[in-house]
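Let's practice the habit of predicting before peeking. Look at the sequence and jot down your guess about where helices and strands might fall. Then scroll down.
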Amino acid sequence: MKRFIAFLAFLAFNFTYLPVQAGDGDHKDGVKMKDGKVWMMKDGKKTEVKQEVTLNDGTKVNPNGTVIMADGSSKMMQNGDMISMDGKWHNRKMLKDEKKEDKAMNKQENMK
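Done guessing? Here is the structure:
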């Protein structure tokens, strides 16, 4: 009986929390550092950053990975780091998530 209740709780969690999380588009558009290069993801299209990019909040990202935040502070992007269009910094250390994202990007490149 305990297993059954645990299973129901697991299903309830997956059908309520995960779809909301997966539907969050804020993490798809932005700038990402991968293999020493800065890439822009916008509306499902991936392009290499060749000149300074200004995000919605005023954050500026340079092709070498130097980031001037909206408050004037600066940081350096590392491989796997992403900054969403609203200037929020996301550190992608989970290998599984990065592999999924890379597969999607490669699939998109192959479609071109």
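How did you do? Residues 26-95 form one domain.
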